[in-house]
Design a protein that fits this description.
Layout lengths: L6 H12 L5 E4 L18 E4 L5 H8 L4 E4 L13 H21 L5 E4 L10 E4 L3 E3 L6 H5 L15 E3 L12 H20 L3
Parallel strand pairs: 1-2, 3-4
Antiparallel strand pairs: 5-6, 5-7
């Protein structure tokens, strides 16, 4: 489990351990997400404190593994474009290093990637008058004023959130979203080329 000390990853680790799986965590405990080693990790999980961008660390983490859950990513939306290289490095390069190691091993187990709803843009909403609509990107002034729900792009009325189907068009609107979509594309390419799942 890459990123197994994170919010989502740690819950997946707990669920896997509850099912009787042996779990190894690879996590760098990035200071943007962790103030140190968390005290909530189940001691039954093996923890490797290292980085998914480090080829040697990934090779060590993969020894004896028959399934991989890839949760490792620099999270959040970023504050400005000055962190674009960090997001690409952590999310895209980290995924590429992992996939290269899996390909070298002719890995045929299951790979599960955690993506994000943000690859679909603002999500899916319905206007009582205009039906399902795609709102434009949220204005910084609205966000700064605490207005987080987008209005109808046609009439400005409040929208009702709807479930976003995986068939929805992708529309990544920030660097984080673009790198999460890039992770999906890299994993799809790896699966096509290797015949793995």
């Amino acid at each position: 489990m890459t990123g197994g000390a994170g919010f989502v990853g740690s819950h997946v680790v707990d669920a896997l351990l509850a099912r009787g799986a042996d779990v190894r965590i690879l996590d760098n405990l990035h200071p943007a997400a962790h103030a140190g080693e968390p005290d909530y990790l189940d001691p039954r999980a093996e923890i490797l404190l290292d980085d998914v961008r480090d080829s040697d660390a990934v090779e060590r983490a993969l020894d004896g593994v028959d399934a991989v859950a890839h949760q490792a990513a620099l999270v959040g939306l970023g504050t400005d474009l000055l962190d674009i290289a960090d997001y690409v490095d952590h999310n895209a390069t980290g995924t590429a290093v992992l996939l290269r190691a899996l390909a070298r091993r002719s890995f045929r187990g299951r790979l599960v990637l955690a993506s994000s709803m943000v690859v679909y843009g603002e999500g899916r909403y319905a206007c009582p008058e205009h039906g399902v609509v795609r709102p434009p990107p949220r204005a910084r002034t609205d966000l700064e004023a605490g207005r987080f729900e987008p209005p109808c792009p046609t009439c400005g009325r409040p929208l009702e959130p709807r479930t976003v189907p995986e068939s929805a068009p992708v529309d990544p609107r920030n660097v984080y979203a673009a790198t999460k979509l890039h992770q999906e594309h890299l994993c799809e390419a790896w699966a096509r080329e290797t015949g793995a799942r």
